[in-house]
Amino acid sequence: MEILYLTDVHDNLKGLRSIVLKTHADLYVFSGDLIYKAFQTEDKLYRYLELQDQFQQFLSKLKMDVSPFELSVMILEEPEKYPPDWQEKADLYRILFKQAAENMKTRYQIIYNLVKRYSRAPVLFIPGNYDMDLQYTALYQMDMHKKCKTIDGIKFSGYGGAPVFTPGIPQKISVVFDEYKENGKLHSEPYEHFNRCKPDIMIIHNPAYGTLDKIQGRGHAGSWGIREYIDENYPLLVLSGHVHEDYGLLKIGKTWCLNSSNFGGVDSLYGVQEGGTFVKLVLRKSSGSEVYLRKLTVFRVVNDEIYPLTDIELDKNMRASEKVLNTEYYQGDFIR
Q1: Each residue's pLDDT tens digit, 209-236
Q2: Nearest-angstrom CA–CA distance, 27 and 150
Q3: Kind and range of the H or E element at 169?
Q4: 211 close to 225: Cβ distance less than 8 angstroms
Q5: pLDDT < 70 stretches in the chain
Q6: Within 13 A of 122's CA, how many CA atoms are on the CB side?
Q7: Which helix (H) or strand (E) element contains residue 68?
Q8: CA–CA separation, 240 vs 246, rounded Å?
Q9: Angle between helices 13-22 and 84-118 (to 10 degrees)
Q10: Closest C-alpha to 263, from 5, 7, 2, 4
């Protein structure tokens, strides 16, 4: 089986079109953050961010465990309990919230139209922290969040989202990454989900702790629950995204962890991250029908052209050897 995998599309629909038009695979996997901006104009985005921040500060001050959307409902239902100008803010917040949701649904419809028209293979998606819950979008039939699916004898399972607040994305419609510690005990819905499904290949947005999850100045930021599942069960492959700068191929025990980095360009604290990379994976079956990872090729889309960057061959002893194919665009250090 050949799998084409990319993550963090971030509204790069032109690049996405190149992928589905110019590549061939048995399966396409998209690991979250399909959207980057929920608003069509900067003015509306900044006004929404301003209101979102004011509502968050108000909720923090009162120690209220509700979302800004729920607060706006409370203000409109009982305006006499709040300062006079807050009713106007709540009205505007609700209007902008609705516009953001409609804009996002339109983007998902465009993505659906692209893959439905041009892809000649099945496509799987999970949402990231920049996405809304895909079950409410045109992509619902391809959504793998908290689902399991077997394709050609290989079991896939997904869990999307990330435990971060994403400014400009309405929290009420985003995916909750349900993991936290209480009284020293870890509660992890991702762990529980994967433990029920026992997949060969895990599709996640937020990486496992200590696996391609290192953020400059913060250290490791991944999921403890997902890492615990990997350490206990040794799935074949874990496909993740979210942390753009900590990309590559990493082996944890008998498990390969892969983050191809962001496909869509983004602005960040570290400057512009141009993106454009994706990976094709080749899976094989042994004589005993055991599935193993045989080869990876890393690609990059530049000006609508696709360039192979490096081939990585994996032997039966899980040793990796690399052959660089393009020194102009390859950034190096893909094998960790």
Answers
A1: 999 999 887 889 999 999 999 999 999 9
A2: 12
A3: none
A4: no
A5: 269-270
A6: 15
A7: helix 68-77
A8: 11
A9: 20
A10: 7
Q: What is the pLDDT of residue 195?
A: 98
Q: Both tokens of residue 76? A: 């409109």
CA distance 90 to 252: 48
Residue 224: partners with Cβ closer than 8 Å, 6 or more residues away? 179, 186, 188, 209
> What's the distance, CA 53 to chain centroid?
24
Q: Return the half-sphere exposure (C-beta side, CA atoms, 13 A cut-off) of residue 22.
A: 15
Q: Single out the residue of 123, 119, 93 nearest to residue 27, CA to CA.
A: 123
* SS3 label, residue 127: coil
Whole-angstrom distance, CA of residue 310 vs CA of residue 240: 19
Q: What is the DSSP string of 264-317?
A: S-EEETTEEE---EEEEEEEEE-TT--EEEEEEEEEEEETTEEEEEEEEEE-TT
pLDDT for 270 equals 67
Collapsing DSSP to helix, strand or coil, 257 comes out as strand
What gap in Å lies between CA 170 and CA 34, rounded to an integer?
A: 15
C-alpha closest to that of 252 among 266, 271, 234: 234
Rounded Cα distance between 30 and 125, Å, is 5
Question: pTM of the prediction?
Answer: 0.95
Strand pairing class (201-204; 219-220): unpaired
Q: Is 295 exposed, middle or buried (0-12, 13-18, 19+ CB in 10 A)?
A: middle
Among candidates 302, 295, 289, 292, which has minimal Cα distance to 330? 302
In one-letter notation, the amino acid at residue 170 is P
Half-sphere exposure of 161 (CA within 13 A, CB side): 20
Instruction: Please give the helix or strand (H or E) that residue 43 lies within, else none.
Output: helix 42-62
Reference 3, options 249, 269, 324, 293; nearest CA is 293
Contact 240, 211 (CB under 8 A): yes
Residue with structure tokens 């892809």? 119
Q: Name the nearest CA neighbour of 296 among 275, 328, 323.
A: 323
Helix axis angle for 68-77 and 42-62, nearest 10°, is: 80
Distance CA 241, CA 30 (A): 9
Domains of the chain with CATH codes: 2-35+122-324 (3.60.21.10)
Tokens 């300062």 correspond to 83
